[in-house]
Amino acid sequence: MEPFDALAEEYQRVHADNPFQRSAIADLLSRLPPRSSVLDLGCGSGIPAAQSLAAAGHHVTGIDVSARMVELAKRQVPEGEFFQQDMMQARFDDATFDAVVAYFSLLMLPKSDVAIMLDRIYGWLRHDGLLSLGMVNFDADAEPVEFMGVQVRVTGYPPDGMADAILRAKLNLLSLETVEHQPSVGPIEPQIFCLAHKAATS
After folding, report:
1. Of the candidates 110, 133, 123, which has an alpha carbon nearest to the alpha carbon of residue 169?
2. What is the pLDDT of residues 95-146, one digit of tens each?
3. Distance between CA 32 and CA 143 in Å, rounded?
């Protein structure tokens, strides 16, 4: 069983109301053309990202490795399309999406796979497409940690490392913000939110 099958409801209760994530979503929404096509990588339960994007009239496709998370997303965001899938196995045509969001999902990959995913995101984005990304702000590569009572491996970047990873994927970094988020349960989490752009001339 995937760890987040067991954690799905509790994860949503504790982590879905992150004001910094909601601010990142609002910033993305302010920049998207009407009825954009958006990919939510590691969509979780659909709240808050897919729900906010669908409510604004955008077409949302979400994938998550957790069957329970996908079940919740389908129920809570019926306007979206959600699939159980490991993001490393996902295949989409080039220039399919106006935006990709990945909030605290790439951190489940080792850095070598994060680089692969960022390259793929570049290909999946249309020209002028946007990537909104949330990660943890510390330097680690698939480090074993206990999260909400289960063992997972987590990858993080310091701000300059995160910026370098985005730039190596040929994306233009529009903004990078470091924050200290206090979930409703658990310790303060150092986080990074980035907005990146695929230039029309690239």
Report:
1. 123
2. 999 999 999 999 999 999 999 999 999 999 999 999 999 999 999 999 998 8
3. 35
Q: What contacts 21, CB < 8 A, 6 or more positions away?
A: 48, 49, 103, 134, 193
Tracing tokens 């995913």 back to the chain, one arrives at 117
**Residues contacting 55, CB < 8 A, separation 6+:** none
pLDDT at 201: 61
Q: Which residues of 32-50 are buried (b: 16+ CB within 10 A; e: fewer)?
A: beeebbbbbbbbbbbbbbb
Q: Distance between CA atoms of 54 and 148, rounded to whole angstroms?
A: 29
Strands 97-103 and 81-84: unpaired
Helix H or strand E encompassing 129: strand 125-136
Q: Which residue has the tokens 């760890």?
A: 3
Preceding amide of 3 cis, omega within 30: no
Q: Assess whether pLDDT exceeds 90 at residue 148.
A: no
Q: Is the pLDDT of residue 17 over 90?
A: no
Helix (H, G, I), strand (E, B) or coil at 56: coil
